Amino acid sequence: xxxxxxNELMLEQSVVTIGAFDGIHRGHQALIERxxxxxxxxxxxxxxxxxxxxxxxxFQNQMVLTNVGEKISFIKKMKVDYVIxxxxxxxxxxxxxxxxxxxxxxxxxxxxxxxxxxxxxxxKRGTAAxxxxxxxxxxHPPIKCSKGETISSTRIRNLLCKQEAQLANELLGRNxxxxxx
Length: 181
Hints:
It is a single chain. The chain is of the alpha/beta class. Helix content is about 40%, strand content about 20%. The chain has one domain: Rossmann fold, CATH 3.40.50.620. The strands form two sheets. A six-stranded parallel sheet has the order 1-4-3-2-5-8, sandwiched between helices. α7 runs antiparallel to α8 (about 165-170). Belongs to the RibF family. GO terms for molecular function: ATP binding; FMN adenylyltransferase activity; riboflavin kinase activity. InterPro entries: FAD_synthase (IPR015864), Riboflavin_kinase (IPR023468), Rossmann-like_a/b/a_fold (IPR014729).
């Protein structure tokens, strides 16, 4: 797996999945796995496009579940070909949805895979529908836990605040957090 910053990688074809992927919980894993499998079926490289820090950490000062090194390490285990890490800063956050779409164009996505709450560009103005106007886009359905509730990074953060590390780890699909005393 090779790691690039945004605007460094150009590909003739790819399958790309885009997201903050903070925590790389079971929902993220399912989305990335689906994109990797589609890339293999289409015989093109798989690309994970993600952000450092995650947008919610930048805008809302929320706790980061996995730092960028941990995120890269976990994504590597998922057999992804390329990872693009966009530096999420004030300049990046001010970009238009059109600028983001132009950036993705050089990856020549045969398919783009996103999660159910996907938005992009300044003010979250870009949607999966905007992405699908330019690329064949698929929205992965939410992944639910054994209790039937949607798995999300926000839910994991809330569990950690309530000192429920065991359930947080269940949603992550691995033991990332030790029992909180």
